[in-house]
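Ops channel
N.P.: pipeline sanity check, posting one input/output pair.
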């Protein structure tokens, strides 16, 4: 089941900024201030984790980072295992190539949740065709943009488009058109999650 509770609580629990709140807002600033304080009265102390506990923690971080449920993540892992080669890399690539994540990485939306909403509300086109499936797998060479000019006038989207962002090397953007130019790398995910531990968790 997908988590729908307080986003700040999740960030504090893991001590990680998952991109759950819109940068520049008061709620984002409050979350950053509390990031290193565990949830609960006075903040609970972190217990020493077993190897299994560390693997579980990394798996949970990956799940919350991309806003997917347990079944979805396990399905991605099973598909990654079927391929010959680096399972962690294949898992990373499938998650990064989700349409909602690409929209977020391109700076078209402030959070993945907002990107998912844009997609489901039919504001996004892939290769000139509207796609409303957040988990849609973008392919190298695909062009991603807004359905029409009206979509770019949504206040929070308009504000995002004025911001300068640093794109992953596997994406490029010209104006309002983004493109997946090569297969994603582990670089961005690895800043937050140890993918090898996630693979170890599911390989038990």
């Amino acid at each position: 089941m997908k988590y729908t509770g307080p986003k700040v609580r999740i960030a504090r629990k893991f001590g990680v900024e998952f991109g759950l709140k819109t940068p520049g807002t008061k709620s984002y600033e409050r979350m950053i201030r509390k990031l290193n304080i565990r949830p609960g009265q006075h903040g609970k102390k972190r217990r020493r984790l077993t190897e299994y506990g560390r693997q579980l923690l990394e798996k949970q971080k990956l799940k919350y980072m991309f806003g997917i449920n347990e079944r979805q993540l396990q399905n991605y892992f099973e598909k990654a295992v079927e391929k010959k080669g680096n399972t962690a890399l294949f898992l990373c690539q499938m998650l990064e190539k989700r349409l909602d994540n690409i929209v977020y990485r391109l700076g078209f939306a402030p959070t993945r949740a907002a990107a998912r909403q844009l997609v489901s509300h039919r504001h996004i086109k892939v290769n000139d065709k509207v796609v409303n499936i957040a988990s849609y797998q973008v392919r190298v060479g695909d062009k991603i943009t807004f359905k029409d000019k009206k979509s770019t006038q949504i206040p929070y989207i308009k504000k995002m488009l004025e911001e300068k962002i640093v794109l992953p090397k596997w994406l490029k953007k010209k104006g309002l058109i983004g493109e997946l130019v090569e297969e994603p790398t582990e670089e961005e995910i690895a800043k937050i999650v140890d993918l090898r531990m996630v693979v170890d968790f599911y390989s038990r």
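N.P.: looks fine end to end. The chain has ten helices and five strands.
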